[in-house]
Specification:
By secondary structure, this protein is an alpha+beta fold. The protein is about 55% helix and about 15% strand. It has a two-stranded antiparallel sheet with strand order 1-2. Strands 3-4 form a two-stranded antiparallel ribbon. The relative contact order is 0.13.
Length: about 100
Amino acid sequence: GSKHLSIMLQVMGEKFSLPEFRNLFAWIQAKDACFMQVDLDRSQSLNHAEVYNAIKQGFPMLNLDQHAFYAATKAYDPDNNGTMSRAEYMAFCAYLELASRT
C-alpha cells in the first residue's frame, strides 16, 4: 500500500493540515476581498457604514440589529477612531465567524 503523507503547517503555535490551511487562507482572502470592495475611498480603513456593508456581504446569514452592530464595532476599534483598519476588521470577522457557529 501507499503511505499517506500529512503535511503539517504551524501558524502561531497551532498545527494545520494542508487542507485546513487552504480553507483558512480562502477564508482570509474572501474577507479581504469584502474589505477591498467596500473601501470605496481606498483609505485602507473602513468607517461604520463600510464595515456594515462588508459584514452584510461577508456574513449574509447574520442579522445584527443596530445596537448589536454598534457594540461589536466599538469593541473591535481599540483606538476608538471610528474606523477599522484591515487588522481590526479581520479580528472582527474572526469573532463573527466564531459567534455564528455557536
